[in-house]
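PROTOCOL LOG
Step 1. Enter all chains and additional molecules of the complex.
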Amino acid sequence: KATQGRLESFFGPV
Amino acid sequence: MLEARLVQGSMLRKVVDAVKDLVSDANIDVSSSGFSLQAMDTSHVSLIAMHLRADAFEHFRCDRPMSMGMSLANLAKVLKCAGSDDIVTLKANDDGDTVTFMFESPKEDRVSDFELKLMDIDSEHLGIPDTDYCATVTMPAGEYARICKDLSSIGDTVVISATKDGVKFTTSGDVGTANVTVRQNTTADKKEDQTIIDLKEPVALTFALRYLTSFAKATPLATHVTLSMTRELPVMVEYAIQDMGHLRFYLAPKIED
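Step 2. Run joint prediction.
Step 3. Record the structure below.
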């Protein structure tokens, strides 16, 4: 089963 | 005071039509470098990053940086009222709460202006690091759109695997399974039919097809699309806006549990 990642886990806040 | 005159006004409409179903409201940030837009869909799974350089405009005046919050659906309605060959001029006052779009026909025999109310939208900007991608594939935009459409009829998740043999898109569902492999083709006589693959190391990532399909709404913008991938990072799907800038989509991968 694959879980959908969210962008915050990959890109930091500015 | 902001005043920007874009001769190929139709590019603006194509950009907005490409993103309005993914993001409903967004801030268009204007500075001396041009127009930028960064926004995520409500689930924060995909992000759009658009930049239109100031030198793309026949006339560009931006006295001080400003951020214009807009409903993209309303912006699309206004841009739909422009002729496909119209020159589009945007005007806004520094402290204004509206933006005016002026459409001039090429023969200047028809001029119209639309005033759009601006909104207060709290922008959630993310820092997108410059990435040295393991694999990039540049392919005809229509080809990418077709792969998304065809695979979406079979499954809702796609594994994109880039190897030296090419880029394979795999999906499966109740119907069965499907594989589409795209190979390097630099000998096509028409440049727009070429596919170029730059592979530093093999990479395979899993994505939700519905977002990749939504990105394909940008197909009218450009002849090619570039997919850039690196292990465990979002894929970047990039369309050039002629030589004026770019429209980039980022999609977070699905991580195997």
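Step 4. Note key features.
The interface with chain A takes residues 40, 43-47, 124-129, 157, 206, 208, 233-234, 250, 252-257 of chain B (CB under 8 Å).
The mean pLDDT of chain B is 96.
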